[in-house]
Design goal:
single chain; 715 residues; alpha+beta; Penicillin-binding protein 2a (Domain 2); Beta-lactamase; 5-stranded antiparallel beta sheet; elongated
Length: 715
Amino acid sequence: MTQQQVRQRLFLFQVLVVLAFGLLTVQLWRIQVLGGSTYQTLSQQNSIAPETIDAPRGVIYDRQGRIVVRNRPSFRATLLPARVVNETWLLWGEEEWRRAGSMLTEVAELLQIPLPAGNHTSQLRAAFNQASGQLLSEDIDKLCQAGKLFECFSEALITAPYRPITIQKDIPRDAAFTVMEHSINLPGLTIVSESQREYLYGSLYAHLLGYELPIPKERLERQTRFTTNRYLPTDRIGVAGIESGYEEALRGTRGVRTVERNVVGRQVRVIEQQPAIPGHNLFLTIDSELQKVITEVLQEGLNGVGSLEGVAIVMNPNTGEVLAMVSLPAYDNNLFVGTIDPTQFQQLSENPQKPMFNRAISGVYPPGSIFKIIPAAGALADGIIDRTTTIKDPGIIYLPNENVLNDPALAMELAQPFVCWLETGHGDENVVDALAHSCDVFFYEVGGGYLDQFRGLGDVALAKWAVAFGLGEPTRIRLPGESSGHVPTRQWKRLSKQESWVTGDTYNMSIGQGDVLVTPLQILNATTAIANGGTLYEPQLVYQIQDAQGNVVQSFQPRVLRRANVPAEHLAIVAEGMHGATSWEDGTARISFRDVAVSVAGKTGTAEYCPVITKEDGTFDCKRDKDGNQLTHAWFTAFAPYENPEIALVVFVHGNGETVIQGSEVAAPIARRIIDYYFSQRPLDSARPVPPPPTPTMPPPVEVSPAVAPIQEEP
């Protein structure tokens, strides 16, 4: 190569270098000068993003202003996989894997997550190589909650590196702040503070209050673009009790804020914010002290006869306000706060006593003799009887066999006996006597008539009056899961059993047996109608709704469900008979109510039920006691004072599966203790709910630095 050729090539190279630097200068000028504002906006958009602010759920108070449900801060640790090493995992070298392994090891030590012995960087790489990259978010979270930190991180790094994963929940407060102090050196690690429910009375209010669970997928899918205050997949929702019935009032409205973050994802500043609106606070009609006493008294009564199940409810008969509602056995709804342990949930679900089942509104049972107040009122209203009508009770009557036609003698020979509980009979009884003595024969004939001697109500009218007093349909209390009970009719029997209705069916129904089924709350509502002159109210659990500042949002007035359409003078006769049951020397509840401080009108009930057993020959029968008697439940319903009722109550004790238990001997004494407490020992009721203090807004789920002050618990 000649010297001239060398100079030419060197000149060409110099020209190319100059051109390259010229092009680079032009490009830098285009980016920084012409496109500077555009790229600055894009940069800001990468570091500025909106975040939601969860609304604290409303606090729940009892009628005296005592807190029964509040919110408390709960802490959880989240990790953003993409921030652990600020490079895409595709570009990781040995140093990046070492940093990631070291960082995760330190996180595990802080959160006391056990890791396998050995080289953690190697373990992380092995977990990454085995990751499928196909797991759903919920499956990744399950790995995290199971303590498999390397596997959880690896799956998330491949599948959704910019979605925070929760690596530990329910971190104690002190531990959370310890993690906060170290989090400045652990990129991607965040301590999130959330509002969590706390049920201060535990099982005492379990069936009334219910609990929250993560929102079901089907509930999310029911939302449309027109849905306001939409739920997010991370939300929790009330699924039982008042938490469910008043979900819309309690949940509040989510807020939003715009946050600027630096390159490692830490918050720099809040640019703008629309605060969350806390949910409304509820004031219940329930008296916590009364609820507690009734729970103790009922449990003692159950223990005394070996029963495992029972109900007691107290209501204001003039307004429908429920003052106490107890269903036993119960459960602690704090178990559902956060994430319930699967073993505990399985134990609750499979418990044969069904502690999560609210027997007060969902359990249906034969009412027995407490049902007699309904045919008594109906027969008086329809003119079948009056105050002076008497029916002779010989202890047993015989109903001719209706399947035998045109042969009265044979029909009587094959007659079915219907007995009174008192074998010798009560003799001549009017309606007041019959209620006080609970005379079965009187109500057989009042309900179904007897031969040509007496015209009774008949099955159609009997069903009509049962419905008039609220049976066979929900009371519309705002709790999920309420049962309608069952009022049998001629048509129902034909369709369900393929059998004809006979007078014997009417007889059985007239004393609360046969196929009639009720909830304890339905019976209590019927009792209140006797007490107040014929009005059935919608049972009310919430007295008032207030916002977080204490302003009244809604005050609940008594809501009439229906009128029983029985003249007041006839209801007064029924009430007189109920008063006789507790005050006459031969009244069925006299022993329990001797020397009571206030006059009481009540009705006992002993209801036969049929636990089905298989006999040796393969046939089925009802389980009986050692003397061959059918097993029974015990009932008692009442109101007091008799002259000017302030409360009405019902007590139900489920049969113990072994013996006959009587309403007069088991349920009535429990009711007596409740009435004694209410009128003699209970503190005076407050006239109005106490205004609550303002509900503080829970902090949004953001990264917390050591400089942030500790979060104050809500009241």
